[in-house]
Amino acid sequence: xxxxxxxxxxxxxxxxxxxxxxxxxxxxxxxxxxxxxxxxxxxxxxxxxxxxxxxxxxxxxxxxxxxxxxxxxxxxxxxxxxxxxxxxxxxxxxxxxxxxxxxxxxxxxxxxxxxxxxxxxxxxxxxxxxxxxxxxxxxxxxxxxxxxxxxxxxxxxxxxxxxxxxxxxxxxxxxxxxxxxxxxxxxxxxxxxxxxxxxxxxxxxxxxxxxxxxxxxxxxxxxxxxxxxxxxx
Length: 233
Fold this sequence. Notes:
- By secondary structure, the protein is mostly beta strands.
- The chain has one domain (about 1-230): Beta Barrel (YmcC-like fold).
- It is about 10% helix and about 55% strand.
- The protein is built from two helices and twelve strands.
- It has helices at about 1-15, 30, and strands at about 45-55, 60-75, 80-90, 100-110, 110-115, 120-125, 135, 145-160, 160-175, 180-190, 195-205, 215-230.
- A twelve-stranded antiparallel β-sheet has the order 6-5-4-3-2-1-12-11-10-9-8-7, with no helix packed on it.
- A hairpin with a 5-residue loop joins strand 2 (about 60-75) and strand 3.
- The chain is globular.
- The termini are far apart.
């Protein structure tokens, strides 16, 4: 039933196109959910990031910083795709200037939103959006299959000091056992994009005297939360 509803929604978006001969017209982006992944030149999002890394024989390392993602230009890739270049900046706190950290790209087609980092392509969203929609986030790279699922759609939510009428929760992983935990999720807001993400990938002690006690052997816990957003140009 959910797949049928998604198909009907996509068909409705196609039918909503103006009746003319332009074959390059696209479906209504709002109906399909494209506005959860906006790509406007000059738009930026600032995040507060906290990462805790655990090591078997070394002290735990915690890092906290601010990060900005700024869409600076749109260009046509060698494959002929409209591609968007995003620069990532970092700083230790709000009293320091931004420093360029890295650059990556993103693009959208009629069915997916893609993000390319470190020569790997990730499928961030699959259109049309619907609760229960599933896709392989690693479908275009050589990493193991990553089952992403939309668990909530168009739900009001408060993130930091911002209140959004329409947000979406995507669960990237929700696996756990006595010796391992992999929980990852992302929150998107309409007309803003990613507003929060969390990663918890942990390996626990497997020795007979500590198994099942939640003693962390190695892994990473990371949170990324919206601080501010807008347009610079």
